[in-house]
Specification:
Length: 494
């Protein structure tokens, strides 16, 4: 999809359809958010009815007598006083998605005039919404149903601001699509080796991607990663993706992404209904790899290294067992209370490597870790924990700008004793109650005093039914938040 700015409604290019934004005022009336009188008159008869109330994402296609476009689509942005970048994003995503089966190749958009929202944020909402609405995973369809729209004209009274926003949005949304594609693919294709092959294709233009095999993992003493992968036919991998955009700086952010390419639960086998969707248990690794692509494409002046421990938690004669004790890379001994609490094990070895060997000045891990997070917060809100208030604040602000809701959970040290073991330094589970918290506390053992944030995407990385801007399947959650966070961080480094 190609974006083309135009300076005024009168100078808009010919297109198959023109999108017209509306809102509802405090009295329930529908008001246009654009100035062109002729276009307002063209939809006047519709507005005289109650068929269109301008709710967020509500849209209707009309067929006017026009030489410029054969269709007009009215789009609702909701209550005028409540319009934000996110409501714009959602409205355009839903509206464009509804056009999927229409024979359209070009669209123009009248940019809404929304007083509290800066033009750059309006542009961002429109472009991100259009790209979200155009996404669909078609890999396994015999007959593809990909979006046919090739060109979108956008009214941009400030072309230079539009072009800067476009550059950032394209990098961010390309990364998001990569993450969603990785998670949506078959587990037998996106196994540790398959993931490593995809990751290697990103190694260019200053981004260095190095996949390591089982022998390297053994030399590093990553015994937890090796234990989890023991029962699988696919050998584990450990991928390092490094970007040195600020070689003179001592600052280094390390990202760690959980890469369980399929999770059966191991010998503590999951029930049938919980097995579905487990090809998406590598959503954390997919997210951090996608973020590294965006950092590369935007050439950000920061130092970031992503670590992706990859294995399959499968069942076999060699599977690791409940009650066994394994020693982590850090030297800490771990009693296996559940083989279905495997994600935190592979993250532990990676976190230790990031802190001790890479010298991380901040470390962020991303994982579809616990069902407890999903029960607590549902499919829209991701849980996160942090040991550093300033890092947590910056990440929360980035999530607001990205439209990816987060909720900071308590890193309650009073629950540490729930991880006590009679035969080892600790257990990998702390019981059902407070499961997301005890999982975070387990990871906290491996970061020491390094500023750290942990994201639990247990309920948000994969949808069983369409919701908000997303269809069924992978959401790519946290990609946009982390890219936004790094964009802001790069501005402080200049």
């Amino acid at each position: 999809m190609r974006f083309v700015p135009f300076p005024s409604a009168a100078k808009r290019p010919s297109a198959d359809l023109c999108c017209l934004p509306f809102a509802c005022d405090s009295s329930g009336g529908v008001v246009p958010l654009f100035d062109d009188t002729r276009l307002q008159q063209a939809v006047g008869r519709l507005l005289d009815t109650t068929d269109f109330r301008a709710k967020v994402g509500e849209s209707i296609v009309l067929y006017p007598e026009s030489k410029t476009e054969s269709r007009l689509m009215v789009i609702g942005l909701g209550e005028l006083s409540g319009i934000t970048t996110d409501t714009i994003r959602q409205a355009y995503a839903k509206s464009l998605s509804s056009l999927r089966k229409r024979s359209l190749t070009s669209v123009t958009c009248m940019t809404p005039r929304v007083e509290p929202v800066a033009p750059q944020l309006v542009y961002r909402g429109i472009l991100e919404g259009l790209l979200l609405g155009s996404y669909s995973f078609q890999e396994y369809r015999s007959e593809k149903e990909a979006m046919a729209i090739e060109e979108v004209g956008v009214l941009a009274e400030d072309p230079s601001a539009f072009l800067e926003v476009e550059r950032e949005v394209i990098a961010r949304m390309s990364a998001l699509s990569l993450c969603r594609d990785l998670v949506n693919q078959n587990a037998d294709e996106m196994n540790p080796q398959g993931f490593a092959e995809v990751a290697s294709t990103l190694s260019r233009d200053g981004l260095m991607v190095t996949p390591h095999g089982k022998e390297w993992i053994e030399r590093q003493g990553m015994r937890l990663l090796l234990a989890v992968g023991k029962g699988a036919q696919y050998e584990p991998r450990f991928i390092i993706a490094e970007w040195q955009g600020a070689p003179q700086s001592h600052e280094k952010t390390v990202l760690v992404g959980k890469g369980i390419t399929f999770d059966t639960g191991g010998l503590d086998l999951k029930p049938f209904e919980n097995m579905k969707g487990m090809k998406g248990d590598m959503a954390g690794a997919a997210a951090v790899l996608a973020v590294m692509q965006a950092v590369r494409d935007l050439k950000l002046p920061i130092n970031v290294t992503a670590l992706m421990p990859l294995c399959e938690n499968s069942i076999g004669s060699r599977s690791y067992k409940p009650d066994d004790v394994y020693r982590a890379r850090s030297g800490k001994s771990i009693e296996i209370g559940s083989t279905d609490a495997e994600g935190r094990l592979i993250l532990a070895d990676a976190l230790d490597y990031g802190v001790k060997d890479l010298g991380a000045t901040r470390i962020i891990d991303v994982a579809s870790l616990t069902g407890a997070a999903a029960v607590a917060l549902g499919p829209d809100i991701s849980a996160f924990f942090s040991n550093t208030d300033s890092l947590a604040y910056d990440l929360e602000q980035a999530s607001v700008r990205a439209g990816e809701p987060l909720w900071k959970m308590p890193l309650h040290m009073g629950y540490v004793d729930l991880l006590d073991s009679d035969i080892a330094d600790c257990k990998n589970v702390g019981g059902r109650a407070g499961g997301a918290i005890t999982a975070a506390l387990f990871l906290h053992f491996f970061v020491g005093q390094t500023p750290w944030a942990h994201f639990d995407l247990g309920g948000t990385s994969l949808l069983k039914e369409p919701r908000l801007c997303f269809g069924k399947g992978a959401t790519g959650v946290l990609v946009r938040t982390l890219v936004d966070y790094f964009l802001q961080l790069s501005k402080t480094n200049l």
